[in-house]
Amino acid sequence: MITSNRYHLPFLGLLLLLVVCVIVNIGLGSVKIPFRDVMTVLWGGEIEKETWQYIIQNYRIPKAITALLVGAGLGVSGLLMQTLFRNPLAGPFVLGISSGASLGVALLIMGSGLLGGILTSAITSHYGIVIAATLGSFLVLLLVVVVADRVRDTMAILIIGLMFGSITTAIVSVLAFFSSSERLQQYIFWSFGSLGDLSWGDLGIFAAVVFLGILLTLFSLKALNALLLGENYAQSLGVNIKKNRLSIILATSLLAGSATAFVGPIAFIGLAIPHLTRQLLNTNNHTVLFPAVVLFGAILMLICDTIAQLPASQLSLPINAVTSIIGAPVVIWLLVKKRKMVF
Amino acid sequence: MNSAKKHKVLEVQQLSIGYEKRSTPLLISKDIDFSAHKGELLAVVGGNGVGKSTLLRTLAKVQPLLQGRIAIEGRDIQDLNLRQLAQKISLVLTEILPTKNLTVKELIVLGRQPHTNWIGTLSEEDIAKVEHAIHQVEIVDLLDKRCYELSDGQLQRVMITRALAQDTDIIILDEPTTHLDIYHKAKILKLLKDIAHRSNKLVIFSSHEIDIAIQLCDNMLVMQESKTVHGSPKELIKSKSFDHLFPEDLILFDSNTESFKMKS
């Protein structure tokens, strides 16, 4: 009567879909590579054309894994924030993590230009940007955690996070106002997001951080379910609110912060994936939602990336725009079709 | 009930309740003394703002006490951690659920959290306890409904089932009968009496239904700004504890009918 296995089938389907999405994502791109050759490389074989082998091994596979990690990480952090704040509008960036990262990168790209060309070579480097984004989001996060420790009311943390976001956004616009058009363009390109810039080495670091965030989430699942009843009930069920709140915030910042640092601020995924999952599975149980969100996030991100590549053409679209263009209509359609929001 | 079989489960001594402010604590009520037993239905009554909810929240350690001692089975609640406390006391609060999309079943199962492992896996014992609670409150027909589909009375019974599934010696309910019509008020209170006597639990609830509480409860705690008195309804009527509970310009307690009457 109490337990049921009615989720086995959807999970099997999602897993299959994920595998298909990974293969399609790797198979398509600006260079047309025959499907047979793609599969050969994926199974660890060698193919005649070395350039194709190089493209698949060092560009397409890392990019697919990046998309997978970003989608899963942002999806989970969105779920965490929505439950912690019991607010369907919350996403991974409500605590100001992405604006913190933006501020870091803006300071690096535009601020250093204002100060003079001492760091010019460092700015353009990929690592400079990753480090700046990490520092930026880490500082904002540190402020939020310090505040969270002092404030009893969780909703106050939400507002404070939004305020931090406003402040950093304002500073970024001031910087933009005074910087040259090339610098501005460079910053804007970063804000479009890019999944293709990660080497295998970067990917290792990224995967480790995401794994840590997922692990923290795993240990918060029980508390998350209790939080569905509100904080007082959760506490009466033996949940230590402050401790769990901190680990939830930490998990979110690891997941969303690392994604932002490596691929830029990816909009929408974190907000939409949890809604999509709840609508389709019609449950609020986090032990079901969490793995489903991981799978859905990875799948949607892979699909968006495949589309952003504009297969068989030399062009590609900014990933940050594609996620919204593809994702938003899906969520709207689901809400209209079901007529009732599951939250 | 045979007094020799009584099992004292809650003891409150010289308790002061209120809110800790930085400089001076805001005292709401003081000198609260009583003890309560398993299998007892205890009502906390008093006017608005006299501290009924504060007392219940303090008993459940949702907020700290200012002075005095609260002991559960002889152990000071300060020495119990949250999980241990959650195995002793379950709560039914007045607050609205943030998500009403849970099914009744999911909601009741959450009551087992203090007993389950780190990820909340249900053992056979957990499932048995949940099913027992569901049958005792007779809500089998509601199980697959979602909370937004329930009436206020049904939701209240579901919340009580959840507390029952938590399987604690003490169940504390904050105004469980607000928003209900008189029939459903009686139904909830009858259910609470049933739970206290049949399942041998201590059930403490705050209420404005003094008339019904006098008829149903084993003991009552009458809170006033000046003092708090504890006793059986009969003792309290005899000692005229209800007579000065409210300002006497509009209503008066009539000890013959054991209820409040409009002043004529």
Q: Topology, pairings included?
A:
The complex is a heterodimer of chains A (343) and B (264).
Chain A: H1 8-27, H2 35-42, H3 50-84, H4 97-115, H5 120-124, H6 126-150, H7 154-178, H8 181-192, H9 200-218, H10 221-227, H11 231-236, H12 241-263, H13 269-281, H14 286-308, H15 319-338
Chain B: E1 8-19, E2 26-37, E3 41-46, H1 52-59, E4 67-72, E5 75-76, H2 82-86, E6 89-92, H3 104-110, H4 124-137, H5 152-165, E7 170-173, H6 182-198, E8 202-206, H7 210-216, E9 219-223, E10 228-231, H8 233-238, E11 251-254, E12 259-262
Parallel strand pairs in B: 3-8, 3-9, 6-7, 7-8
Antiparallel strand pairs in B: 1-2, 1-4, 4-5, 9-10, 11-12
Helix pairs in contact in B: 3-5, 4-5, 5-6
Question: What features would you describe in this structure?
Answer:
The complex is a heterodimer of chains A (343) and B (264). With 343 residues, chain A is mainly α. Chain A is 76% helix and 0% strand. Chain A has 15 helices and no strands. Chain A has helices spanning 8-27, 35-42, 50-84, 97-115, 120-124, 126-150, 154-178, 181-192, 200-218, 221-227, 231-236, 241-263, 269-281, 286-308, 319-338. The longest helix of chain A has 35 residues, at 50-84. Chain B is built from eight helices and twelve strands. The N and C termini of chain B lie far apart (40 Å). The model of chain B has no long low-confidence stretch (mean pLDDT 92). Chain A binds chain B through residues 1-3, 86, 218-219, 221-222, 225-226, 228-230, 232-233, 235-240, 283-285, 287, 342-343, and chain B through 60, 62, 82-83, 85-87, 89-91, 93, 95, 97-99, 101-102, 105-107, 109-111, 113-114, 116, 118-120, 122, 127, 130-131, 143, 166.
